[in-house]
Amino acid sequence: MGFRDRGIEIKTPEQIDKMRVAGLLVGQTLELLRSSVRPGLTTGELDAIAEDNIRSAGGVPSFKGYSHPPFPATICASVNDQVVHGIPGGRTLESGDVLSIDCGAIVDGWHGDAAITVAVGEVRPEVAELMEVTEESLWRGLAAARLGGRVSDIGHAVESYVRSRGDYGILEDYTGHGIGTQMHQPPNVPNVGRPGRGPKLVRGLALAVEPMVTLGSAETDLDDDEWTVVTSDGSWAAHFEHTFTLTPEGAWVLTALDGGEQRLRELGVPFGGRRD
Known about the structure:
The chain has helices spanning 13-36, 43-56, 125-143, 152-165, 261-266, and strands spanning 60-61, 75-79, 82-84, 98-107, 110-119, 169-170, 176-178, 185-189, 206-209, 212-214, 220-222, 229-231, 237-239, 242-247, 250-253. The chain is an alpha+beta fold. It has a single domain (6-265), classed as Creatinase/methionine aminopeptidase superfamily (Creatine Amidinohydrolase), CATH 3.90.230. It has a 5-stranded antiparallel beta sheet.
């Protein structure tokens, strides 16, 4: 069975360049939000900042109106025990909170998707470590991807790093995904599993990798709003995500402002993108 038979979208280099434009807008929006986070701000105010920035640059928010029930906002804003898909609104951020922000944008029909977790003021040491472990696991997953490898190589690297750092919960019911002309496409990109499985990593495949890690159990519940995913045991969570692709030269992180060059080189992985 071929890639197209399985619904996997393979892009031309020119189409990947268009995805880079969308990815940069997402990355720039997340950096703006990171610098805006402070105690006393509401998640709804952050959402307004994000929407204005995306639309001012000629983009369209990927999330707004997505699926059913339609997601009502530009970003997902998930606080503390909310893992993903939190709906922004009147919740006021307090010092010591941890906020996961997921953002997507469409430019010229192509999607970018990324997420960060931000400390609101000073957070507990174990929460700061959770954030560091989750972000590093994302980069370990990206660094494990090679042309000719398999999708599960990514999740295996994510899981191996997280397990090496402590007794954390890694969500299995929510995964990364293919991305391109739609925000969510095949294949799924799990954050756990054995290497050497799943679709082959080929040039033109774009993936969103997004580990979601908790201080406790990996079990989750869905809030009454039918969107917000919370930990079943009330433990706090972190979420990081990047959209990336592979070129003959190496990995190119489309939503990282520098294309991922610094972190990939630190991990001994060739950088496969251009310097914008």
